[in-house]
Amino acid sequence: xxxxSPVKKEIILNGIPASPGIAVGTAYLFTKEIPRVEERELDxxxxxxxxxxxxxxxxKSAKELNKIxxxxxxxxxxxxxxIFEAQIMILEDAVLLESLTKxxxxxxxxxxxxxxxxxxxxAKLMLAAHxxxxxxRAHDIDDLRNRIIRNLxxxxxxxxxxxxxxxxxHSLTPADTMILSRxxxxxxxxxxxxxTSHAALFSRSLKIPAVVGLxxxxxxxxxxxxxxxxxxxxxxxxxxxQERLAEYEAKQQRFARFEADLSQxxxxxxxxxxxxxxxLSANIELAExxxxxxxxxxxxxxxxxxxxxxxxxxDFPSEEEQYQEYKxxxxxxxxxRVIMRTFDIGGDKLASETAEEANPFLGWxxxxxxxxxxxxxxxxxxxxxxxxxRKNMAIMFPMISTIGEVHLAKQFVxxxxxxxxxxxxxxxxxxxxxVMIEVPSAALNAGPIASLVDFLSIGSNDLTQYLLAxxxxxxxxxxxxxxxxxxxLITLKHVINSGHKHGKWVxxxxxxxGNPVATALLIGLGMDELSVVPGxxxxxxxxxxxxxxxxxxxxxxxxxxxxASEEVESHLRDFLKQQCPDIPLEHNSIPIxxx
Length: 595
Ligand code: PEP
Ligand code: MG
What we know:
Layout: E1 11-14, E2 16-19, E3 22-30, H1 47-76, H2 78-91, H3 94-107, H4 111-128, H5 132-152, E4 166-169, H6 174-180, E5 187-190, H7 198-206, E6 210-212, H8 217-220, E7 226-230, E8 235-238, H9 242-263, E9 279-284, H10 290-295, E10 300-305, H11 319-333, E11 337-341, H12 367-372, H13 374-386, E12 393-397, H14 403-422, E13 432-437, H15 440-444, H16 446-452, E14 455-458, H17 460-468, H18 486-501, E15 505-508, H19 519-525, E16 529-532, H20 537-546, H21 549-560, H22 565-579
Parallel strand pairs: 3-4, 4-5, 5-6, 9-10, 9-16, 10-11, 11-12, 12-13, 13-14, 14-15, 15-16
Antiparallel strand pairs: 1-8, 2-6, 3-7, 7-8
The structure holds phosphoenolpyruvate and magnesium ion.
């Protein structure tokens, strides 16, 4: 008798799209036992050999990480690889080694226990911070601890895989992602992980589709299960049906065709069918993204988030180090422009050096920190000015909320210029200085602010969160974060008109700029520049080139009169579909940026 195996039920899980792309493959369950640590008493004579054993395990861990570092530098570039340098530095820290050694001698406990508790202290401190970035760094420290303990227990981790699997894991550390990527990995799916996790960042650099934050994918999936991973929409399909496979295959082909089609736009200008030209530039976080930005046909960089220089380190880069980085960016983009945003620290980004703040988004953040720390601010401004000699750089300030702050920030620019002049160091004396409009008070005061600066750039991510009083990173209220709320639209219009009244150009660099549904609205409202995540740039260019400016103005006027976000969005969606039918709207086409 023939036995037919039952068809397994299809399961669909939704998570966070962390790296775009679609893949179909079989699951490899990457499980990593967290090493069990027992507490053992030592007799006096065993202490020294135990210390030796501990030192050997630490050295072995450093050697492993050095290997990963070398590989990461090749694959994802110097800046992103820095996370491993940070781990190696901890391992080589003489103070840490001394306290570990001292504790083994005085407490007479085994090395696993001492390493676990000592390094665990750092992770606990980081976990106590109300900050997703710090939580991710706590995982990195945990990973370091587990590595040493595994080496103490002489366990080996799997790094070679058969075939081309989709990796399913509870969580992945940056080192796991790097090591596993030496195989032909088709995708990553994890239970945990936020968009700021380095695993997410690395999969984007490696161009491997990834979905994170899936809850319990590692329990739902068994090794060898057939899977679809959709890194555009953030979906995983387990045991896909034949129809589902066909659907995704068609989707995959559609995207491939669409992307090939877009690449032909590279050399063409972003101009509407009736001749209205927009400046279309890209947002970047790291110099490593420059090649991709150039490849995508960007006219320049409308937002360079300089605070990314601080990632993976706890000190500030020196003026020289900053200068080298800024110059690299300006040189590569020349003759196109790069707008450097001064450090936007605080909020949900990088922990500031202070203790906890009850409301970090309303606290010490952005320009507020720069103005309170003139030494650091001047250092950054000097580095930027020195790198401006090709005359293709502009500077802008984040989180401006008062006119007084604009005056003060400009005074610092003048002081930095004077210091350079005194040393006969060259810079672009005509460098444009602008302000980000991302706080409602600044939006209301856009007129007087525009009179003081060369341009305004709207930070719609923060502007929306502050206008609607909805935390941009809190999933409990994410349904209230309405990018097309009439209040947002009225504010955009007011800022654009105020800038233009003073003869200044106005751009937008929040995620809204890269939302295809918003393109007609933004340009119709009079926006002069759109700065978008590099992955979406060709699509936005295609939309601009397919539409008529006069029609965009009418659609903007029409939606400005509407009273609900849903109504605005649906009207804009219909307009886009009608004007540009081949834009695939069903996917979440806005790649995630790390803020
Ligand atoms: C914004 O707030 O819209 C913006 C571009 O800045 P960030 O996302 O870095 O806060
Ligand atoms: Mg912002």
